[in-house]
Every structure is written in C-alpha cells, then in structure tokens.
Amino acid sequence: xxxxxxxxxxxxxxxxxxxxxxxLGIKRSRIMGKYNxxxxxxxxxxxxxxxxxxxxxxxxxxxxxxxQEIEDSSNVKDIxxxxxxxxxxHNYLDIEHFKEICQELYLKSHSYSLSIxxxxxxxxxxxxxxxxxxxxxxxxxVEEIQKEEKQTEGMEESKKDSTESASETQIGKEAEGQExxxxxxxxxxxxxxxxxxxxxxxxSNVSLESSASTESTEESSASDPAEEANKERKEGExxxxxxxxxxxxxxxxxxxxxxxxxxxxxxxxxxxxxGHVDLTxxxxxxxxxxxxxxxxxxxxxxxxxxxxxxxxxxRWKGWNEECINAVxxxxxxxxxxxxxxxxxxxxxxxxxxxxxxxxxxxxxxxNLSAExxxxxxxxxxxxxxxxxxxxGKAAKQGLDGNQFGKTVGRDYKGRNKKGLDCSGFVQWxxxxxxxxxxxxxxxxKELVGKxxxxxxxxxxxxxxxxxxxxxxxxxxFLAWTEEGQMLAIHENSTAGTVSVDEVSANYPYYRSxxx
Length: 515
What we know:
Layout: H1 2-13, H2 17-23, E1 32-33, H3 37-40, E2 50-51, E3 55-63, E4 69-70, H4 76-88, H5 95-108, E5 110-116, H6 130-137, H7 142-151, H8 153-163, E6 183-186, E7 192-194, E8 204-206, H9 208-213, H10 225-240, H11 245-250, H12 252-267, E9 277-285, H13 306-309, H14 321-332, H15 335-339, H16 354-362, H17 370-381, H18 422-434, H19 444-447, E10 452-453, E11 464-467, E12 473-480, E13 486-492, E14 497-503, E15 509-512
Parallel strand pairs: 3-9
Antiparallel strand pairs: 1-2, 3-4, 5-6, 5-9, 6-7, 7-8, 10-15, 11-12, 11-15, 12-13, 13-14
C-alpha cells in the first residue's frame, strides 16, 4: 500500500502543468508562458502566450500529523506496531481483523496536496550551444559563458551555428515561497483537501468546486490566450506553407523550411526564457507519537470489539502508558535483524533499499560468476532511479555523471526526464558492472547478435531475453519464481522507470553474454 500510494502521486506529478491545473480547477492563464522553440517548433510569435509544457522542478514535502516537516515518509512501522499491541490485548489469532485495522489506519493517516508555483523566468535557457549547455551544467553563469564565447567568436562561429539548441539548463530562480494555494486530494473519503497558504500545514476537507472558487479570478484583459495562440499558430503555418511549385519540384522546399527554422531560432536572444513552473507535493503522514497522530484516528474496524472492551475481564484499557511503551519499543526495534522481517516491498516506481538489493542478491546461485553478480547489482541499483526515455543511452558508467532524471526535451510519448530505453539500460548495466559496453549497442536488434544463443530453459541470472521487432523489448533475467514465472529487471516504459517484475517474455532470442 505504501509503495503504490507514493507511485500514484508520482504518476500525477508526471502530467503536464496544463493537465494538473485542469484537474484541480485552476485557470489556464495561471500556467501561461511564452513561445518555446523546443515545443512549438518554427512557428514563432512572441506576442502569443503558450502553456508551460512541463514542470521544471518537482519538490516533495513531508509533514507529520502535527504539521511539522519530517524526512521519513513512511508510517508503516508505526501502524504495524500499533496494530500488533492492540491485537495482543484482544484476539491476536484473528489475522483478518489485524489486516483490517492496518489498512484503515493507513488510509486515514495519509493525505496530500499539490501546489503549482507562479510562472517564472530564468537568466536564459533557449539557444544555448552544446558548449554552453555542458559548461552550464558545471555551475557557470550565462554571463561567464557568453564572455568566453565572445573571446573565441571568430574561431567557433560556424561550429556555434550548427550546435545551437533549445535545451533547458539548470540556471533558474527558485520560486519557493511564491507558490499559490491549489487543491489536494484526501485519501480518507475522496474529498479534496485545501492548503490555505504555502506556510500552513493543516489540511482541511473541502469540495473541488469550493477549492476552485477560491483561486485568483484575474484573467488577461486581452482575448483568451488559447484562442490567440491558435490564431497565431495558424498564421505562422500559412506563412511557412508559401512555397513555389518550382521549389516543391526541385526539393528546395525542405531546405527553405530548415533555413527559416534556423533563422528564427537565432533571432531569439541568449537570455530568452519561455517560462517555467514548479510543482510542490505536500504529503501528510500521521505517526504514532504525533499529538494529532494515529492514536487519535477513529477506526470503524474497532467497533466490533467495543462489547468485549466494556467487560470487566477485558485486557484492553485504552492507550495507557503500558501500551504506548510497548508500541514505542516495537518501533525502535530493527525488525530485519530481530525477526527477519523486511518492511519494504518491490514496486516499480520506488528505488530499492540496500536491504532489498541484498535480498535479491542472496537469491543468486553461489557459483554465479562475480561479473554477473556485479551486473545484476548495478541493474538493481537503478530500480526507480533511472527514468524511461525513448532512445536514451548512457554517457558514462554508473549512476553518477549521467544526470538521470534531469529535465530534457520530450520524447515521442511526452516524457521529459533524462534516462534510458530498454536496450540502453542493459548496455549501461553491462558497461557499469562488467566493463563490457556490448559494443555500445543502440537497439534490441543489435543486442541479438551479442554473446551466445541459449534456450529458455538454460537461462541464468544476467542473461538477456530479447524481442527485436514489433513491440521490441529486452529484459534481464533474474530468477524463476516458485510459481514458475520469470522475474526480470528491465527499463519499464509503462512504469516510466527501471523495475523488477514478473514477466512472460516469450521472446524469440535468449542470449548469454558472460561466463
């Protein structure tokens, strides 16, 4: 439940600002920026406004039941400890009742709200050259980069023209403290929780309609931004379509289009910014020790125990000092070392803890080669950390230095976080874990030719299962489950990140890369 809950919030955060604003009843004018050549292409018109295409930064804040900032985002251990003590004082053999208590506590102890910052502009993130983009990532200012560029302008003019792009940089003004109040979702009863101000931490239940009505009613005094933008786009399209028949015949239309696009990109200054918005997700997690915490939640699942609790022979005297101390003692105990119990679960959206990685590594055969074990370790370490990005390949070994998760241009499905595709992932894992870059294979078709052909029944951990055509995909075999299902590690386009899953993977190619 804990993993899926956080995964559902991650899914919502992955939507565009326009979609998030619409779902929360926020006016479209709140997320309108300027022309962005990386999104709108060559149809430039700076007088028209455009919706900001994606969130530049996504910030997470976790609050306890008393509204205080916390770092630990899970109260699962608190819930299980609390339910254990309560069940001990009642019928501890009633497992279904124990589960019912845990589930209700979880649902009623979690809520979250979303907050979109005002549109802000940085010192320039359009038309940066490849050199500027690389140096900017190292922390240099736009002014420093421009100064260096001028010193070598004569030598690099032709190179600069060919390498200018519309990539985003990391230079920007933080908009923290300027976030406007938006609506949030209350898990308990499906209502919407509204945060009055960014600084306030108590979430109250209101309807979606009332939340939307409290938003700013300020609109542009001009015509509707969407209509204006559409009109300008059409005019731009008509202008770009004016090509003579002779140009169409000799193939120069395509060349003319590229020339127009290039000139319009260069017409934008180095300090041009189309605008950004950030998303802040505030998650409230009630703990056992909070004043307004788990003990204060009224549970419907406990009503059936009330007749027995009122009897003189009842062992339950409420949350007295004895029971509170018992819960705290359980919370402070290391359950993995004391009982062999792991509190983590495998979920496609969540990174694996070292404990979980160790558990998977312990499943591997003892005689498995050190190289294979190292490859699998690197693959497991990428779970939940490396986004899926179509055509994405690694620039370096390991997680550091590849800038996984950085905002980049959108791929064909609208994903804008730097990452890897399925073939790029296995190539990176072998490169990082075994110093074997697989000849830098760039596709599943190229992977088919690597290593040695084997049968499905001969798979051992680290082998590849490949579908090179149609819905092409590749997974790294990890183990067979007790039910005979294949457990594999792969860059999961559906989940949007690396995941460990049970897969059928009845693909035609099985390849053994390492001894």
